[in-house]
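Appendix B. Raw example, untouched.
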Amino acid sequence: MAADSVIANCHELYSFLADINEELKRAGYVAKIELVSYDLEEEEKEHALTFHSEKLALAFGLLKSPLGSTIRIVKNLRVCQDCHGFFKLVSLVYKREISLRDRNRFHHFVEGACSCKDYW
């Protein structure tokens, strides 16, 4: 799903994810651009992190699910440090529980904390 523009209403989804990003920045989120191994400018590195598939799935869940419901996401790769921190902050700012199953384990985000205690 990363950078896939075929999804119906994708403009709404990408716009909403950009809004989430801005709101989280106001709450203290800083993208971990040092994780991007490509030779890119800082802005391009931040942009590359913005549209990871799990962030798009999270934005979709926030946009389409009822307030207060748990958002559940499954991915076949390990979640990166940037997305992990992003999910923690989303759970705090948006007051939502998020369950993320990655390649290695379940992560359950509640009120800014993860069940893995930041070890993965």
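End of appendix B.
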